[in-house]
Amino acid sequence: MTVRFDAVGLVVSDMAASVTFYRRLGFAFPEGAEDQPHAEAGLPGGIRLLLDTEETVRSFHPAWRPPTGGGRHSLALLCDTPEEVDALYEELTGAGYHGELKPWDAVWGQRYAVVLDPDGNGVDLFAPLPAAGE
Fold first, then answer.
1. 59 pLDDT tier (thresholds 50, 70, 90)
2. Coil/strand/helix, residue 41
């Protein structure tokens, strides 16, 4: 048996809002995905981002309920430059998305910020900081 990582799946309360958010980040959901109960966007390397509505999940797992409290996972998106982290954070928060952590220079050598998607999932934005003297 060969097991390989294939996809990340998120349960969403509003498919249209989630597809809109992730398209802003460059995820190529097909036209009409916002009206479907399940949507997929292919990612570099063959991995996929899967979105399923709460109703879809309840169709095969009737006892499922959305989690409460803080998130335990996030998607991490590599930006080309520290300036891109700042610009993307400003674009998303300017469009009304919740900025969880404003961009900052992390001690581990990255420009880092966190924005929440429409369901409160963390989306980390990061880029390597230039080495001293660059």
1. very high
2. strand
